[in-house]
Design goal:
The complex is a heterodimer.
Chain A (H helix, E strand, L loop, with lengths): L14 E10 L2 E11 L4 E6 L5 H8 L7 E6 L2 E2 L5 H6 L2 E4 L11 H6 L5 E4 L2 E4 L1 H14 L17 H14 L4 E5 L7 H16 L3 E6 L2 H7 L2 E6 L2 E7 L5 H9 L13
Parallel strand pairs in A: 3-10, 3-11, 6-9, 9-10
Antiparallel strand pairs in A: 1-2, 1-4, 4-5, 7-8, 11-12
Chain B lengths: L1 H10 L3 H17 L7 H26 L7 H19 L1 H25 L4 H20 L3 E3 L2 H5 L1 H5 L4 E2 L2 E2 H19 L1 H11 L1 H6 L4 H27 L1 E3 L6 H11 L11 H20 L5 H26 L2
Antiparallel strand pairs in B: 1-4, 2-3
The chains are: A alpha/beta, B mainly alpha.
Chain lengths: 266, 323
């Protein structure tokens, strides 16, 4: 099938965004965005603040419906947009600003929306032992300090610990797609390296990883493909080897005007 | 030590209210030289507490999602009027179902405007508070509905009214049943987890796949149902109801919930605390009556308590969530 950069690809994209627009009243957040994502690749979604990266992945993860355009998942057109649908299709998203309810315990946050139950007289009750044990194992495997009690409110965790928690949750429930929106925010240098290693591992396990970041140099080292957005449009979509990180940075700095040798903006 | 106290306060927000109940009970008993603690006063106090608590439990569930329902006073009035109005015609069993259906319907109206259309619950339920108060006055047109002698013989009427087990009024037993059921639903089931999650952070729970609209709609229906049931319990105990039935009860219900450790910002509630909150309010009321104080002062005292309780609550929460 024809991909957005004009070449042909025999594989069917796992997620295909076609001519998607999104507007809030007069504000045009996304303008005619078309992009394909394939199983087993890592795509770096890069761009300045307000470029539309987060808006795009909010559409993919079902949080907001597009104003116009089409979204396909595994060849099937998506007509109704809500997060439960995306989760059921096997998509886990590490959102930058949302995803944690401060008032709930670590364990309850971990299983929110997919709580394990035990039935008594046909009524589903929370399986608290499973919630406690499973979440404790995961948060400690991901290096949260031993004093973290999964029965305590998650509000007691630091920003970095919450970020680690979100990553741990997404990775453990991984299925087909993992989207990471600025996953290394709030993290120390060592933790950043760990998250990037993890993203590569997930890709190698055959998942589609969409990695959103400001840092073109960091993502250029690990991604297979780089998509640059600017002012709600996709301006560049190239395999990693096609351009150097410096050249890509130049595109971002110039506000999306691609140099002559790069592919034409859509 | 601070960590220890903090963790207790975080996990048991009703602790303060319960200790308050013990303290004021002692104080009231001493000041009234025992008559506040007498069996007779405790029986009437427990009945009044039960009616308020049933309404306040529904309010607490709504508060858990970060919304508020101030229509509950009128809804209890409609529930009482529907029950007493229908009972002589269709029998108290069907009248009870009819009254509860009215509560569910009003709750669903609130739910449609708040959950589906996204209007602020304060405005929507303020509107339905007046609307159904008006309907209450209109259907009674200055008279009151009273239970007829034949209705008073029916067992269902007595099961929600004047009967009791071992000196405990039927209303108190019903309140405890509602408490146990809601306590299990809110804290032990997936639905409860999602109710609390929506109140904590609606956008985050939505992103985790929680159907926020359904949850918010559901809590308003439950609140309407329980408010109507509270009206039935009260009406069947007293035996009559007029157009002003349930008026200002919404204030006491909200006060009981807040006093019991429910945060108006949502996500943190205590139903056991709410029960004790209702007891504190009704206890103060009966104390003032025993002292011969004019009943108008009760409203003033409730206002003072709510303001002080919110202040104490915030101070304590800040203390508890600080590392």
């Amino acid at each position: 099938m024809a991909t957005t950069d004009g070449t042909t690809d025999s594989r069917q994209p796992l997620i295909s965004i076609r001519n998607v627009c999104l507007s809030y009243g007069n504000f045009q957040a996304l303008t005619d965005v078309s992009v394909d994502f394939y199983q087993g690749e890592m795509v770096g979604l890069v761009g300045d603040n307000g470029a539309g990266k987060t808006t795009l992945i909010r559409i993919i993860s079902g949080i907001i419906p597009p104003t116009s355009g089409e979204v396909y998942f595994d060849g099937e057109r998506i007509t109704k947009f809500y997060p439960k649908k995306a989760i059921d299709l096997g998509l886990e998203c590490i959102q930058q600003t949302i995803g944690i309810c401060d008032n709930l315990s670590v364990g309850r946050n971990y299983f929110l929306g997919r709580e394990p139950t035990k039935r008594f007289f046909g009524v589903p009750f929370l399986d608290k032992k499973k919630i406690r044990d499973a979440s404790a194992k995961v948060v400690h495997d991901f290096g949260l300090r031993d004093t973290v009690d999964v029965d305590d409110e998650i509000a007691l965790l630091s920003g970095g610990e919450k970020q680690t928690f979100k990553i741990a949750r997404a990775v453990t429930f991984r299925n087909r797609v993992i989207i990471m929106d600025e996953p290394t925010n709030h993290l120390s240098v060592r933790e950043r390296a760990h998250v990037n290693e993890l993203a590569v591992q997930l890709k190698q396990q055959g998942l589609l990883v969409i990695y959103i970041t400001h840092d073109i140099f960091q993502i250029h080292r690990i991604a297979d493909r780089i998509v640059i957005m600017e002012n709600g449009r996709k301006v560049t979509d190239v395999p990693r080897d096609a351009m150097s990180a410096e050249a890509l940075e130049g595109i971002i700095r110039d506000g999306g005007r691609a140099p002559a040798k790069g592919p034409k903006p859509s | 030590m601070r960590q220890f106290i903090g963790s207790i306060v975080r996990r048991h927000p009703e602790g303060v209210t319960i200790s308050m109940v013990v303290l004021i009970s002692l104080a009231f008993a001493v000041i009234t030289q025992g008559s506040w603690l007498s069996v007779g006063n405790m029986q009437s106090l427990s009945q009044l507490t039960a009616v308020l608590a049933v309404m306040a439990f529904g309010e607490a569930i709504v508060i858990a999602t970060g919304e508020i329902d101030i229509s509950v006073g009128s809804v209890s009035g409609i529930g009482a009027l529907a029950f007493l109005g229908l009972a002589p015609v269709v029998g108290s069993g069907l009248a009870l179902l009819g009254a509860l259906a009215c509560g569910i319907l009003i709750g669903a109206i609130n739910g449609v405007f708040v959950a589906l259309l996204g209007l602020p619950s304060l405005l929507v339920t303020l509107g339905t508070l007046f609307l159904f108060q008006g309907i209450g006055y209109a259907v009674t047109s200055g008279f009151s509905f009273a239970a007829t002698d034949s209705v008073r013989q029916q067992w269902i009427y007595n099961a929600v009214g004047n009967s009791g087990v071992a000196g405990v009024n039927a209303g108190v037993i019903w309140a405890l049943v509602v408490l146990v059921v809601l306590q299990l639903v809110v804290f032990e089931t997936p639905v409860g987890n999602r109710i609390l999650a929506v109140g904590g952070d609606a956008a985050s729970s939505f992103s985790r796949g929680v159907n926020v609209t359904k949850i918010k709609f559901g809590v308003f229906v439950v609140s309407g149902l329980l408010a109507a049931f509270a009206g039935v319990l009260d009406a069947a105990f007293i035996g009559y109801a007029d157009g002003s039935f349930g008026a200002t009860m919404e204030l006491s219900a909200i006060a009981a919930a807040v006093l019991g450790g429910c945060h108006l910002t949502g996500g943190r509630i205590s139903l056991i605390g709410t029960l004790f909150g209702a007891f504190v309010l009704r206890g103060i009321q009966s104390f003032l009556i025993l002292l011969g104080v004019q009943p108008q002062w009760y409203i003033l005292v409730v206002g003072l308590i709510v303001v002080l309780a919110s202040l104490a609550d915030r101070t304590l929460t800040r203390f508890a969530t600080k590392q």
